TrEMBL record:
GO terms for molecular function: aldehyde dehydrogenase (NAD+) activity. The keyword Protease does not apply. Keywords: NAD, Oxidoreductase. Belongs to the aldehyde dehydrogenase family. This is aldehyde dehydrogenase (NAD(+)).
Length: 521
């Protein structure tokens, strides 16, 4: 399945292998194991770049036995890693941040090749990894338990946070490396070991990230087994999800995946952290600064070709400004540079594959059947030299109502426009979807802004004022409510999910008073 010489596929293959070599990832281990030539009977996964739409190379796929072996190694490594002092674990994460800084461009290149992100966004994703390493290093000296007043004299009541165990990370194609780092940087300082099942669409980015962490571990004299990667599709993920030794399963992906994973982990008494689909909206109020709103909206809706969990998918606009806003957006959408994400000036790269483009076009047909009007975009786009790639023009669609298609997440650049007259109506429309990830309001009216942020406002995990729905910083807790899964990752107190809490009562008196005044003999 090696691409023909001189084609875009061949160029991307060489670029990917060169980036892996610079990073020091084990290139021979990612070379073809071909069942057809009799050298192996292993199943394989193809590495397909959305830029070319054809396989660049083929990798061996982890079977159930490989996943089992990875968990066994991680569980064994946990027995020593858990007792390494937190600040020393932080030192390994600091080194990972340095290595990511050194190889920022190399890793970003792999992200562009596998996920189709424009160079600036791919570099931004690696920067996010560096940022979360910084954050976790600080955390490694500040993971703190509380001491509470005991009701009994001569007693101390306190809590300690201990390492949890093996953390399983299942990640989606659209943030092929950042999601792993949010989980892993924090899990490592918490004393956990990690087994990662990346998206089957982005295995090279995963091998590269893991190689950098393993280098940081080896330099400090720790076992590489602290960090494991298993490559494969859903079956490899299922094996990880079902294994009782995985204390926390952190899964990022579609709502469908979360609905399959949650009962399995709950059934074996494990913990899960789910980061699932979003259907994010922005309210645009009459007082909004429309110049600023247009910039925020276009980045959130068309950036990453609409393939972020936080992508803006619904605009809820006051009827007094809707025509003005739609006119401005139409003009910007019509001029969006679509094409090879490596090229200077490109703002919209390809969708992940032809299936994603078909789902986008089908959603637009459904919207039209519901009475919607496609104002601009929504067409397949041919890019020179890449006939197999699935490029589209981002779509802006006026809808008469929030119909079923609007209430679903279509993972593509479609922005539905709805109108409202009162803020109550806007909030009701806003919250009337199954998902609850990210939200925004554009307004200069403090009453409207605070109402939207309050308990009667947006029901999402992320609620912004005068910025779009995407592009969160790592210092805050990231995640959403309802069918988005309820998990929180990255900053704030998200670390608590990666540790177990022990409540301790210490009696330093000579008496044995019982709590609640109980008298026993
Ligand atoms: P997906 O659900 O198809 O796959 C995600 C991962 O889950 C992959 O690694 C896949 O192999 C694995 N998987 C699928 N079914 C599984 C199962 N039954 N058991 C175990 N593993 C399984 O999602 P995708 O297409 O890669 O990514 C896009 C989706 O991810 C969108 O819905 C997007 O909103 C969501 N997402 C959410 C966040 C967030 O933080 N909330 C971040 C990124 C992406």
């Amino acid at each position: 399945t090696t691409p023909a010489a001189g084609t875009l596929g061949a160029e991307l293959r060489e670029a990917a292998l060169a980036a892996l070599r610079r990073i020091g990832a084990d290139v021979p281990s990612v070379e073809l194991v071909d069942p057809a030539d009799g050298t192996s009977t292993r199943s394989t996964i193809p590495v397909v770049s959305p830029l070319a739409g054809e396989p660049l190379l083929t990798l061996p796929e982890a079977g159930a036995a490989d996943v089992d072996a990875a968990i066994t190694s991680a569980a064994e490594a946990f027995r020593t890693w858990r007792s390494v002092p937190g600040p020393v674990r932080g030192g390994v994460v600091r080194r990972l941040g340095e290595l990511l800084t050194e190889h920022k461009a190399d890793l970003a290149e792999l992200v562009t090749i596998e996920a189709g992100k424009i160079t600036s966004e791919a570099l931004g994703e690696v920067q996010e990894m560096i940022d979360v390493c910084d954050y976790a290093v600080g955390l490694s000296r500040s993971l703190g338990g509380r001491t509470m007043p005991s009701e009994r004299p001569g007693h101390r009541l306190m809590e300690q946070w201990h390492p949890l165990g093996v953390v399983g990370v299942v990640s989606a194609f659209n943030f092929p490396v950042a999601v792993w780092s949010w989980n892993t940087a924090v899990a490592l300082v918490c004393g956990d070991t990690v087994v990662w099942k990346p998206s089957e669409k982005t295995p090279l980015s995963a091998l590269a990230s893991n190689a950098l962490l393993r280098q940081a571990l080896a330099e400090a004299g720790f076992p590489e087994a602290v960090s494991q990667v298993v490559l494969g599709a859903r079956e490899a993920g299922e094996a990880l999800v079902a294994d009782r030794r995985v204390a926390l399963l952190s899964a990022t992906g579609s709502e469908r995946m979360g609905q399959q994973v949650a009962p399995v982990v709950a059934g074996r008494g494990g913990r899960y952290l789910l980061e699932l689909g979003g259907n994010n909206a922005a309210v645009v109020a009459p007082s909004a600064d429309l110049d600023l709103a247009v910039r925020g909206i276009v980045f959130a809706a068309a950036g990453t070709a609409g393939q972020r969990c936080t992508s803006l998918r619904r605009l809820i606009v006051h009827s007094s400004v809707v025509d003005d806003l739609v006119g401005r957006l139409q003009a910007v959408y019509a001029g969006l540079p679509i094409g090879d994400p490596r090229a200077d000036g490109t703002l919209v790269g390809p969708l992940t594959d032809g299936g994603a483009r078909e789902r986008m076009l089908a959603a637009l047909d459904e919207a039209r059947a519901d009475g919607g009007t496609v104002v601009v975009g929504g067409e397949a786009v041919e890019v020179d030299g890449a006939p197999g790639a699935a490029y589209v023009s981002p779509a802006l669609v006026r809808m008469p109502a929030q119909t079923d298609v609007v209430r679903r997440e279509t993972f593509a650049p479609i922005l539905y426009v709805l109108t409202y007259d009162t803020l109550e109506e806007a909030i009701a429309l806003h919250n009337d979807v199954p998902q609850g990830l990210s939200s925004a309001i554009f307004t200069l009216d403090v009453r409207e802004a605070e109402t939207f942020l309050s308990e009667v406002g947006s029901d999402c995990g992320i609620v912004n004022v005068n910025i779009g729905t995407s592009g969160a910083e790592i210092g805050g807790a990231f995640g959403g409510e309802k069918s988005t899964g309820g998990g929180r990752e990255s900053g704030s107190d998200s670390w608590k999910q990666y540790m177990r809490r022990a409540t301790n009562t210490v009696n330093y008196s000579t008496e044995l008073p019982l709590a609640q005044g109980v008298n026993f003999g």
